Amino acid sequence: MTEIKKQIEVLLTRLNGLKNIGFHSLKYSEKIADELNKYKIDLSYYSHLNSELTMEKVRVINSSLDEVLLKAGQLQGEINKQKKHIKETIEEYSSEINDFLYYAGYKYRVSIEYDDVNNYHLVLKHIDNTSNVNSVNNHLSYGEKNAFALVLFMYDILRTNPDLVILDDPISSFDGNKKFAIINMLFMGKKCLKDRTVLLLTHEFNTVIDSIKNMSHLFNPAPKAAFLSTNNGVLSEKNISKNDIKSFVDIAKSSISSEIDILNKLVYMRRLEEIQDKNSFSYQLISNLFHKREEPIFKYFDASSGKEQCRKMKNEEICKASDEIKKINTRFRL
Fold it and tell me: Domain Protein CR006 P-loop: where (predicted)?
């Protein structure tokens, strides 16, 4: 049983290695063909697993590797090109990359180091530690890995200068401060995607608000936005202008003055008062209505105790609140 377990573990390790074949596992290989041959499975070493089913599965795996081996020379060339691209990008833009990491709040720096045979290594270091980060997957969060990929992609674009750049939802996974740092890096920095044709697809509407309404003057040229939708396989595009983007205050005021029912008006009025002044009498009275309290109370924060306190609303406070509410509906009665 011990021998069977050992053979299973060895084969599982080999299969996991096959799963992870890619640029990162092959980039330091002098000869790709020799490295790929190491992944081929010889069932003669797994006597306890040498069944018809296993033989069929192994035959498929080895055949796939043989197909890749036929293109080993081409693959070697592509890996060498990719290594050269990354090396040149880091060497040329390392200062800008590290500036972005600093301003975005990432406590890492990148650099290039060379080994004894002159192979380069892209090195990641935490600013609070002099040693290199050896396992990126264990140290970096999903968002941090996305940020590194995005910054390297942008600087590679500056080098290769393609006619069209497509960014597929690059910033939805980041929080507010990091989103601004990334938008600044992509479109407003000294070396950025300015004056290039960029198609940015996103589900994150704050990006549209910032680029079209709040900071459009900082982009060159001025960006354009559109809402894309599909219906029965037909793609529709509706332009979004600055006037289409409203703040909640604008939406609330517009809804309050519209012909919607009194209950919805009160919802908007309470939200508007909540933003402007939660201690207003009208906010307090509407909150009491929504909570169906027979005797209205006034909630407030007591600085001396550090806790929320409440008291009964005075008659004059209720009257003042009622007068404010009557401005949006003259038929209001408490």
Answer: 38-319
- Torsions phi, psi for 312 (to 5 deg): -70, 140
Examine the pLDDT at 197 and tell me if it is beyond 80.
yes
CB 90 within 8 A of CB 97: yes
pTM comes to 0.57
Classified as helix, coil or strand, 242 is helix
- Helix, strand, coil percent content, the chain, rounded in steps of 5: 55, 15, 30
pLDDT at 31 (0 to 100): 67
266 CB burial (10 A radius; 0-12, 13-18, 19+)? buried
Q: Across the strands, what pairs with 120?
A: 114
The amino acid present at 56, given as its one-letter code, is E
Residues 6 or more apart in contact with residue 173 via CB below 8 angstroms: 142, 143, 146
Is pLDDT at 150 greater than 90 in this prediction? no
CA angle 19, 21, 23 (to 5 degrees): 145
CB 92 within 8 A of CB 155: yes
Q: Choose among 85, 135, 138, 137: nearest CA to 112.
A: 85
